[in-house]
Amino acid sequence: MGYATRSRRATVLLAGLLVLPLAGCSDEPDGATDKKAAARQTAEKRTPAKQQPRPAATAPAPAPANVEKIGALTGCTPEVRIQAKELREGVCTTAQGSWTVTTFPEEKFKTIWLDSARMYGGTYLVGPRWAVGGKPELLDTLRTKLGGEVVRLRDAAPGSSPSS
Hints:
This protein is of the alpha+beta class. Helix content is 37%, strand content 21%. The chain has helices at residues 3-19, 32-46, 67-73, 107-117, 136-146, and strands at 79-83, 88-94, 97-103, 122-127, 130-133, 149-153. Strand 2 and strand 3 (97-103) form a beta hairpin.
């Protein structure tokens, strides 16, 4: 028996074990729940996991780690004010407001930067190798264009998770 067959059987067995405790908690007549569970297990056997529908995405894929590209996606031409080996930072100012765009050559530099920024607090829109700082309402709007996650930094111990 191959690995894929064992894996599928284990998945079906696990699904069956999850359904069993719920069988006695139904408002349906006796046996109706069992028939539905059996039909669901049969459908799972016929439909490979790769073909099951994916949930709809709520935000676009995160923007690339480039100050100019992120600026263009948000409708501005950023004024680059820091250009260092560890990061690049630009400032965007439009009718929507002002925000900073900071990009990093490696994820580790972003983590260090966020840990350092924690002592000042603030709210940031964070993606892979980039962070955008601004007012929370503005960041919510920019998130629809850039993707990422809105993170509120609070005064905390260095090295703790940036999303607290």
